[in-house]
């Protein structure tokens, strides 16, 4: 009697294990890539929130209290636009560099440098304090690294690319 119970327990465990593997393959496997994508989106949004927090701290702290550095938000919006346009217009069949993509990189670099230069110019003419300039530049670094991370993660031609937007 003891061996019969033990045999039924092992067969029950084996059946349960097979059922678990079947359910995992059937229902969970299609969502594995979505789960990674969702984690990436959450991470990118969290880093973007940290960057905006630094920007707002540089503007809203009581000892600073000047909101001129908020104009870097314009650069955050403008920076991905040349790359969006160049990837839409250029062919990916040519593996060497093309003029459209190089122009987009040049314009994006100009926008990013301008976003870092604006707080320095504002601090040099004493419109903002140097501490606010440091916070805004930290926020710039975090935001632009977040934008770069977005292009690195979603820049491919897979199902979850930004090209579908």
From TrEMBL:
GO terms for cellular component: endosome membrane; Golgi membrane. The chain crosses the membrane at residues 38-59, 66-85, 105-123, 135-155. It is found in: Endosome membrane; Golgi apparatus membrane. The keyword Nucleotidyltransferase does not apply. Keywords: Endosome, Golgi apparatus, Membrane, Transmembrane, Transmembrane helix. One of its GO terms (biological process) is late endosome to vacuole transport via multivesicular body sorting pathway. It is a multi-pass membrane protein. Belongs to the OB-RGRP/VPS55 family. This is Leptin receptor gene-related protein. It comes from Acanthochromis polyacanthus. The lineage of its organism: Eukaryota, Metazoa, Chordata, Craniata, Vertebrata.
């Amino acid at each position: 009697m003891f061996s019969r119970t033990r045999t039924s327990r092992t067969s029950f465990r084996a059946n349960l294990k097979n059922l678990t593997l079947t359910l995992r393959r059937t229902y969970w496997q299609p969502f594995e890539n979505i789960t990674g994508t969702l984690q990436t989106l959450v991470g990118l949004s969290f880093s973007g929130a940290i960057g905006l927090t630094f920007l707002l701290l540089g503007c809203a702290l009581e000892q600073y209290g000047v909101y001129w550095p908020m104009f870097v938000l314009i650069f955050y919006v403008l920076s991905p636009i040349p790359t969006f346009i160049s990837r839409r217009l250029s062919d990916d069949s040519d593996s060497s560099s093309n003029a459209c993509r190089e122009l987009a990189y040049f314009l994006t670099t100009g926008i990013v440098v301008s976003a870092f230069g604006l707080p320095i110019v504002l601090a040099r003419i004493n419109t903002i304090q140097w501490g606010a300039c440091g916070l805004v530049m930290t926020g710039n670094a975090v935001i632009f690294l977040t934008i770069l991370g977005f292009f690195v993660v979603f820049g491919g031609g897979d199902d979850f690319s930004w090209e579908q937007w």
